[in-house]
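pipeline: protein-struct stage 2 | run 1193 | GTPase Obg
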Amino acid sequence: MVATFVDEVTLHLRAGHGGNGCVSVRREKFKPLAGPDGGNGGNGGDIVLVADPQVTTLLGYHRGPHRSSDNGQPGMGDHRHGASGEPLELPVPVGTVVKDEDGQELVDLAEPGMRFVVAPGGQGGLGNASLATPKRKAPGFALLGTPGWEGDVRLELKTVADVALVGFPSAGKSSLVAALSAARPKIADYPFTTLQPNLGVVEAGSTRYTIADVPGLIEGASEGKGLGLEFLRHVERCSALLHVLDCATLEPGRDPVSDLDIILGELAAYPVPTGQLPLLDRPQLVALNKVDVPEARDLADLVRPDLEARGYRVFEISTVSHSGLRELSYALAGLVDEARKQIEAPKPRIVLRPKAVNEQEFTVRVEGGSAGNLYRIRGAKPERWVAQTDFTNDEAVGFLTDRLAKLGVEDELFKAGAVPGSTVVIGGQGGVVFDWEPALASAAELMTSPRGTDGRLDQNARPTRNERRDNYFERMDAKAEARAELEREREAGLWAEDEKA
């Protein structure tokens, strides 16, 4: 059977990578070196989720869960910047909850038009023209583009409706939706006809509200029996419940009162998210359906006093003859109006707080091991700078060293107990590992090394006078030993001097 409705799916996303910056030097007539003109790389495209009222299911993402956006283009010479990747917009139904791989809720797209950048694209790298300063006039390097976000997110659809119709299979919920609204759900004379929630819009006087036909519940639905557990999440957002009870059932051991008790037990066993009203604490009405059947009418008259004694408002209805539907629709409208008045309190404001001046931009964590201590640096800036560095270019490595020193990484490593030669990692798993040498001073702008090189990284330091003297004596001793070895070989007769002609 081909699925027609999907309310839970896992998306595998890959946002676009940023383009690399360009290293270029402008050349003109009579100006062979007219200054750097490398352009910046373009940013990678974001992946954005958009709450679209025209979308009702996640079926498209069930069939195609892998989505990616465009990469940014690299920069070029003559100050030509690379084009940014186009963002990818993914329309999802209103009421979609976005969660990360660990099940932590990221956003609830409960309003039409809401947008959420679920996978940000990578940042484009700067070209050498943007890196030029009065002291570093012709950089021989550019920054690389950073990779876009890549990972999995889970989408869960929770239907946004005012009233939820709950009841046993074949109780007439779909017929009631069709009778009250213009919706035309599938209706048949066998259980579990409804395999997906059906929405209908009802107008009662000046009130317009939506009703949701939740697939039939049976005993044990909250534990996974039947289809109820898969669709009970669609009841979470409803402000009122309507129990649709079948008064014409022919199944032995069933009656409207026992059906209601079973449904109440399943609703009580279903856990709602923190902060939401439990399902049984919400306004509830009871509809005794199929009273157009004479036996059903007699049964409805029999059980109605018991239900009213429990505190329920009871309506005897028939979806065939439309008996009692007008009164029921206006009663539901009253519940919806009351619920809307209670939730019409102003929504909490979104407060944008600027970043604290003294907020630490990175952390240094000491991790012990068999090979000694390892110092791991975590932070958005250091990790992004490492991703932007071309480690085949010494000048780019020196630029990274200057940035880390100005950020205070070297001071924090000293405080953590690092010594020259200590192993330092920037990033998490797969981060850049290097041996720390604090002797690299931040003075790259004052150096006159050729483009693409950094003299501080050269290991060929000038030998001292004592070192030169020791090297001279070692060479002299080696030559004397070589002459002595030749003399011993001559005396042993291994070779003789050639006679003069």
